[in-house]
Amino acid sequence: MRYGHFDDDQREYVIDRPDTPLPWINYLGTDAYFGIISNTAGGYSFYRDAKLRRLTRYRYNNAPLDVGGRYVYVRDDETGDYWSPSWQPTPERELTGYECRHGLSYTKIASSRGGIRAETLYFAPLGETLEVWRVRVTNDRDTAAALSLFSSVEFCLWDAQDDATNFQRNYSIGQVEVADGVIYHKTEYRERRDHFAYFACSEELAGFDTSRDAFLGAYRGYDRPAAVENGVAGDSIAHGWQPIGSHHVRLALAPGETREVNFVLGYAENPKDAKFDPPGSQTLNKTGVRPVIERWLRPETVEQGFAGLRAYWDDLLEKIQVRTPDGDTDRMVNVWNAYQCLVTFNMSRSASLYESGIGRGMGFRDSNQDLLGFVHMVPERARQRILDIAATQKETGGAYHQYQPLTKRGNNDIGEGFNDDPLWLVLGVGAYLKETGDTAILDQPVPFDNAPGSEVPLVEHLRRSLRYTLDRLGPHGLPLIGRADWNDCLNLNCFSDTPGEPFQTTENAHGGVAESVFIGGLFVLAAKEMAGIAALHGGDGEKYRVAAEKMAGTVAEHGWDGAWFRRAYDFHGNVIGSGENDEGQIFIEPQGICVLGGVGLDDGLAVKALDSVAERLATPHGIVLQQPAYSGYRIELGEISSYPPGYKENAGIFCHTNPWIMIAEAMTGNGDRAFDYYRRLNPSAREAISEVHRCEPYVYAQMIAGKDAPTHGEAKNSWLSGTAAWNFVAITQWILGIRPEFTGLRVDPVLPEGWTGFEATRRFRGTTYQIRVVGAGRVTHLEIDGARVEGNVIPLAEPGAVVRVTAFA
């Protein structure tokens, strides 16, 4: 069943019925100001940090799921009938012609009722800390229409966690100010009012409300606000309780007439130590922000801003475009997968309908992996992200698992002890260097733990990342797992030296002797990458190659189970992910990451491991994380066994890891299996089963229910997932095989049977390469601007050039 369709020409997903199985969302903003918006206008906005700078309030885990948002109401002042063009929050009002168009950093929602059509365009302009709502109301009747338009947002008191919990304080601190028709939310949180929000309208107001009680009325919800029902705003001023922003505009429309009304919701900061006249309550820098507001209320500015946003995405997406025999591949690579990579880069795992924006900041491991799918689009932002991440590293080489984007400081609530974290920094920097050739970043001074005076060159951070692993080896010579490795829910240091007594502190858990085969494979991959980085930096990479070979030998000796790679050893030295176990005999993660590191490629172990994945883990909806599922809780394994069988880490299809198997299959030359796995997860290819999949058909989800689950095939946790970057890498760099390397651009596709080639355009280091692959085998030679070149690496060309390449397979 479909709830919409792709408009490939406009690069939009068009939802033509509002009752999607779950809210299908989009993101506003590209840099500092962001928002979530659903197909029924739900969601919220924030500046930089979804926890500490939340502009508008949202209620998670509610019924219905999508409660609170950017609502517009249209009222027929002659009949009293009113409705919301976005269906919610007035779903009882029947609409005609409902349509939501999710585009790249914008959303349009339109519908009609009673001969009146309303369309709202929501977007955040480039370089601004605000969002625009462009509302166009059209009278399709044969007679004139007298209408009222009401806007509505509910302000959050900045710190989203405190806003949702500290009511004894928050019910007393809400403050607003209305000046010249602009509603200013100026609640002082704890920063002595150095920032504020504003909500403005382009039309003369018939009234306004800033008190939720006054706007909604007692015992009412957003489905029937008293102000809208009565057709009169109360000009209320909030004093504590719940401050909101609502404008009331009256419109008189002739038959066939369209009127445009613009609303602007934004964030502003006061200058440091500023003093405003008159003293006392007037503490906002209204004079500084007023020109910004006035500019963005003008229709011509809105039109120019929207055109600029679309041009911005034109430029980003042109960095790589492909034309293959598979339309779903083209759609995802050219538009939607690339778009999701940018959103995930911006958000990490912090703010979606499944991540509240409160509990998680920017992940150390997560953000490094997100770089892999984004670095080619905006490398200058990737560079800054690398420096921000590295600055949260400890002198030991360890790292905070997460940091807050506003402060860029490590999140002490999470701390360190995820022993795979440091190694991902090496891979993130390696991807950046391959894309840009910017070796100067390696000499950039970066502090440890953001402490002034502790700065060392970035390359030293990379060295300590590897040293962190080598300083923490267990009884088998494998890396210690610490609190967890990539699988945060596999917690193997769960017992103290006294049997039966669980660890009570994080420190003890970190100090356990449980070992990770996965980190062993990851170390091999990172050490080989570091060898290349060292050579690029003028150093000797031999010691890293030796370290990689030694660890590969250890993994092969103690991590091989006969037909697949083991997962780990627990606190007591018991093997995990082995045929010796009654449950959890084979895990996906080591099969992928060990092969990516090259373990088993020369002696046949890799092929055996991948055959075991195909036989034991693959399902029509993707590859499950492990089998058999754990049937009950096991304290020695930790959180993984707390999930029901088939969900999340307990044998769910954790989509993030599936691309590792795709890449591994490509590395062994199995293009059919690699592409088959790719299509099983491809959201566009799953669109026809939306009633099963439930999540958006234009972006990847973190998890799909596994074969042990009653809801096998149902997706959860869409949007913010390393799945986005890794699938982009798998399809573009390994299956299609256009892969940046330190010395050039490699063309090494591993294609499925039946393909006869494909075409691609790739911008790389300032040069545009127009690539045509002829044949479906391995590339033997290239023809570059008519000249034959042996091998499959395109030499670097002059920036600005257009180079035509034919790869013969």
Model description:
One of its GO terms (biological process) is carbohydrate metabolic process. This is Putative glycosyltransferase. Residues 11-275 form the Glycosyl hydrolase 94 supersandwich domain. Keywords: Glycosyltransferase, Transferase. The chain has 809 residues and is of the alpha+beta class. Among the domains are: 14-314, Glycoside hydrolase, family 65, N-terminal domain (Beta-galactosidase, Chain A, domain 5); 738-808, Maltose phosphorylase, domain 3. Helices cover 27% and strands 25% of the residues. The protein has 20 helices and 42 strands. A ten-stranded antiparallel sheet has the order 1-2-9-10-11-12-19-16-15-14, with helices on one face.
Topology, pairings included?
Layout: E1 4-7, E2 12-15, E3 25-28, E4 33-38, E5 45-47, E6 54-56, E7 71-76, E8 82-83, E9 96-102, E10 106-113, E11 116-123, E12 130-139, E13 145-158, H1 160-163, H2 167-170, E14 176-179, E15 182-185, E16 195-201, E17 207-211, H3 212-216, H4 226-230, E18 243-253, E19 258-269, H5 286-296, H6 299-317, E20 320-323, H7 327-347, E21 362-363, H8 364-374, H9 379-390, E22 402-403, H10 421-436, E23 445-446, E24 456-457, H11 458-470, H12 506-510, E25 515-516, H13 517-536, H14 542-558, E26 568-569, E27 575-576, E28 586-587, H15 588-596, H16 605-616, E29 618-619, E30 622-623, E31 626-627, E32 653-654, H17 658-667, H18 671-681, H19 690-693, E33 701-704, E34 715-718, H20 723-735, E35 738-741, E36 744-747, E37 757-764, E38 767-774, E39 781-784, E40 787-790, E41 793-794, E42 802-808
Parallel strand pairs: 38-42
Antiparallel strand pairs: 1-2, 2-9, 3-4, 4-5, 6-13, 7-8, 7-13, 9-10, 10-11, 11-12, 12-19, 13-18, 14-15, 15-16, 16-19, 17-18, 20-37, 21-22, 23-24, 25-26, 26-27, 28-31, 29-30, 32-33, 33-34, 35-36, 36-41, 37-38, 39-40, 39-42
Keywords: Glycosyltransferase, Transferase
GO molecular function, one term: carbohydrate binding
Organism: Actinoplanes missouriensis (strain ATCC 14538 / DSM 43046 / CBS 188.64 / JCM 3121 / NBRC 102363 / NCIMB 12654 / NRRL B-3342 / UNCC 431)
